[in-house]
Every structure is written in C-alpha cells, then in structure tokens.
C-alpha cells in the first residue's frame, strides 16, 4: 500500500490487505477506540431490538448504553480474541491474540460508522426507535418507508461487517475463508448460549408482574 493508506477506508473493500498492513505496522492501532465505539453502537442496536424503551426512560436508557456499551465492546475484544485463537488453532490457524484483537476491532468499522444513524433514528422516530411497537411510525407512510430504508441500511452494515470479519480472521490465521466462517460460527455459538441464559434469568426483572 502507498503512503496515503488509510485503514478506515481501505478496510471496506480490501479487508485482507488492510489487516495485514495493520498487523505488520501497528497491530494495536485504534483497537481500543474501535472496541469502545463499536460496543456503544451495538448496545444501541440491542436496546432497539429488545424494545428496551418500554422498560427504561430514554435518559436512563442512553446512560446505560453509554456505560455498558464500552464495557461490552472491550470484553468482546479480549474474550473473543482468546476464544477465536483457541478454536482457530484446531483448524490450523496461527494467529496470536494481538492479531485477532486487531481483526475483531477493525471489522467494527462499518458498525462504528453507523453510530450517527442513531441520532437520525431518534429525530425521525423519537421514542419508537427503542420501542417494540412502531404505532405512530407505521401510521405515517413517509416514516414507515424511511424506517424500512434505514432497516435495510442496518442489514447491509451488519453483512459488510461480517464480510470484513471473516476475511480478517482468515488473513491473520493464514487459512481459508471457509475455515474462518466455521471458526467464527463456533465462537459465536459458545458466546451466545450463556448470553441467552443470562438474559432469560434477567427477563423477570424487566417484566414485573
């Protein structure tokens, strides 16, 4: 890559080349920032998907997101790297934890880039951005169409982030794209199961009788 190399832009279309350059120059570059911002963005998405606005007023919800999001992002950065290394080695991977942390962090660039969208969502949909029912939004054709459009953008961002992630994990492990997918899926299952159990235990507190 030339002297004008910017990982923030090149990671979108050249994930393998970009992550290799990052690993060879400074694998710690911006990973904490990306983990924190990515965690916040993902916390907004989770709060919206779970309709958390039904249980918390908006100021309390945003405060919770801003506090829990960075912690979740950093936890995923370190726990995820450890787990991916453990599983990847079973498939012949050679990545170190530091390299996998870079792969995880830089795969969040699309998700971090989508963070300002939450401001747009609130301006357009107000509290319904975090409510399970979209009664007012769906009653207004313009808002309903905008909601669908933004939902499609969110979907593309998730898919693109996964595309970067699979390629980055493949590159740092120096194994195939297919092995990368299997490695990530196994790690995802291992992380998801206890998360679902924890949510099931906490659900009664969020749904008072």
Class inferred from helices and paired strands: mainly alpha
Q: What is the helical fraction, as a range of percent?
A: over 70%
Any idea what the radius of gyration is?
A: 18 Å
Per DSSP E runs of 2 or more residues, the count of β-strands stands at 0
* Poorly predicted segments: none
- The tally of helices reads 10
What is the overall silhouette? elongated
Strand % is under 5%
Mean pLDDT: 90
Features:
209 residues; mainly alpha; 10 helices; 78% helix; elongated
Q: Could you explain the architecture of this structure?
A:
The protein is an all-alpha fold. It has helices at 7-13, 15-25, 31-49, 58-90, 97-107, 109-113, 117-125, 135-139, 141-173, 177-206. α2 (15-25) packs across α5 (97-107), α3 crosses α5 (97-107) and α4 packs across α5. The longest helix has 33 residues, at 58-90.
Write the layout of secondary structure elements.
Blueprint: H1 7-13, H2 15-25, H3 31-49, H4 58-90, H5 97-107, H6 109-113, H7 117-125, H8 135-139, H9 141-173, H10 177-206
Helix pairs in contact: 1-2, 2-5, 2-9, 3-4, 3-5, 4-5, 4-10, 5-9, 9-10
Short description:
With 209 residues, this protein is mainly α. The protein is built from ten helices and no strands.
